[in-house]
């Protein structure tokens, strides 16, 4: 059987360039313009859709291809069970781009040096273009569909989804009910000990703002005192900077380690398995990782993290303030809470003898934790992840698929909360420069864009039609 998505690449390229040219910088967003563009393109193919606007200009597009066949015998043999919808999820808003720092117009949709350049090419208009084209392919192919396929392209994805997936989950949950969902966030190649792996995002960390307030003794700047709030806060931050928070082995981290260990041999396999032993995780990560950045990534898969992002203290240069405060951006593993990470931070500071304010002491530290986004996770080994692995192998026989944990929670958490299996999986090649996401000169190579299309086609077509691409 001829590969069915080969002819779609010109369509994907056109969609992506046009979407980039629609400035949906959030704020203010104006995603409705992009939603209407996709709606018009889908309408030409006979695909109906709706745009929901929680606020003027903040449009969410939902397009549905209904199943054409009842659930029945399974030609793949391993996709049994109910045939609920498959959601293809992306968002239409982008972060700001300063044209003076770019080599091209960030909203020009320029094709240059074998790549499409522009804000959103990777995050997240590239996935939106591919998913729209795959919906069109399923419509054109005439193949029987044993489940609905729902394209969801939302507003406000760069701002916790309040007007996007969060709003849809509250006001139109029936539109986004699914058995499985694919979105951005994974598919990145990783090399570990000489072998190639592609991560798929099986879990998202949650987030919380942690506020550390140091209460000290105010006074004249010419009279130093041992209870200076700024000194106390500085000691606390310096102590935390050297700290390593506890290890938590989630199903996704265990699946990641097991996949790496199973594909390595000898001492390398044993070293990798040591990542699952909390007392050995840090040492094993140093041995396994290619560099410090990869070590930090491995450790972030296994622990809650924090980053100081804000400091505030004092109003006048000659007055020691009574309080000094810092804000930490904390990322929380599935199964953990904002209270968990606060307790972990307090334990570190307590072990180093830093004082805490309380009923019997007015000076010292106070730590507050404010949850922002809940963590979420899907089982790492499912029918659709097995299809993802097989699709990847068909294009890269030497590569392996492994579950990863994202530091940033996206719209999948709303689908996981309603029972769907949700993975971030937009596979790209090693030529992808991830530093351009939210940065300067964001771009995706034509080869990577086509690679994503081909691999995702080999996932969605069998999952929806139960027809393998080789005709079996």
Distance between the termini: 9 Å
Described by the principal axes of the CA atoms, the overall outline is: globular
Helix content: 25-40%
Percent range for β-strand residues: 15-25%
Write a compact overview of the structure shown.
It contains 13 helices and 19 strands. A six-stranded mixed beta sheet has the order 1-2-6-3-7-18. The chain is globular.
Question: What would your notes on this structure say?
Answer:
- The protein is an alpha+beta fold.
- The chain folds into 2 domains: 276 residues, Zn peptidases (Aminopeptidase, 3-Layer(aba) Sandwich); 168 residues, Alpha-Beta Plaits (2-Layer Sandwich).
- It has 13 helices and 19 strands.
- A 6-stranded mixed β-sheet has the order 1-2-6-3-7-18.
- Helix 3 crosses helix 13 and helix 7 runs antiparallel to helix 8.
- It is globular.
- About 2% of the residues have low confidence.
Topology overview:
Elements: H1 9-21, H2 31-44, E1 49-52, E2 60-65, E3 86-91, E4 110-112, E5 115-117, H3 125-141, E6 149-154, H4 165-171, E7 180-183, E8 189-192, E9 195-204, E10 206-215, E11 219-220, H5 229-241, H6 251-262, H7 266-273, H8 281-288, H9 292-300, E12 305-313, E13 319-320, E14 323-332, H10 338-351, E15 364-373, E16 376-377, H11 383-395, E17 400-406, H12 412-417, E18 421-424, E19 443-445, H13 446-465
Parallel strand pairs: 3-6, 3-7, 7-18, 9-17
Antiparallel strand pairs: 1-2, 2-6, 4-5, 5-19, 8-9, 9-16, 10-14, 10-15, 11-13, 12-14
